[in-house]
Amino acid sequence: xxxxxxxxxxxxxxxxxxxxxxxxxxxxxxxxxxxxxxxxxxxxxxxxxxxxxxxxxxxxxxxxxxxxxxxxxxxxxxxxxxxxxxxxxxxxxxxxxxxxxxxxxxxxxxxxxxxxxxxxxxxxxxxxxxxxxxxxxxxxxxxxxxxxxxxxxxxxxxxxxxxxxxxxxxxxxxxxxxxxxxxxxxxxxxxxxxxxxxxxxxxxxxxxxxxxx
Length: 213
Ligand code: 5GP
Fold this sequence. Notes:
Layout: E1 18-22, H1 29-39, E2 44-45, E3 49-50, E4 65-66, H2 69-77, E5 81-87, E6 91-96, H3 97-105, E7 110-113, H4 116-128, E8 133-139, H5 143-152, H6 158-172, E9 180-183, H7 187-198
Parallel strand pairs: 1-7, 1-8, 2-7, 3-4, 8-9
Antiparallel strand pairs: 3-6, 5-6
Helix pairs in contact: 1-7
The structure holds guanosine-5'-monophosphate.
């Protein structure tokens, strides 16, 4: 059985590139990921495991693998997680390594939408293995807009919003650690920019030859 962190150098062998998308809470990472899923089906979106309960409309195996704390412990101790973190001081979230390796070695552009702690773990893993991955920071148009989005979402109580705001401040300061920043002022534009970085093209889009160089 592999030790928890001794198999990370198998992560990004193969032609496809691993892309990690992170950014502050409520910047719209989930919306951009959903838009990627809808318009760029050639991109494989990693399905994270989480101990958080599902929200209405979330589907096990599509949006997350909703697992018990015991099952999460097992996945970590069996070395199945590429990275994992406690997010917002509450629930645990992690990226199962196997499917990431599988899709990358099958040549599929692969996207992880994870928090900053997870992005740092992946960065350390790929760096120490000398492998290729790109790290994309999704930024709000302004700090004021981020606060508006955070409060406007209305899915969390006041204490949870405070916690998320504090986390968002720390996350905003991490932007210089990333290779590229995409400003999420318009979801479709931000998604198209991300897809371009992934080397993906929208279904039905004109062939590359007719695009500007
Ligand atoms: P939510 O509970 O709103 O779906 O997600 C909360 C946060 O968890 C988001 O910032 C999201 O990026 C992060 N997250 C989702 N999946 C993972 C994961 O596999 N690993 C890490 N480190 N963070 C994750």
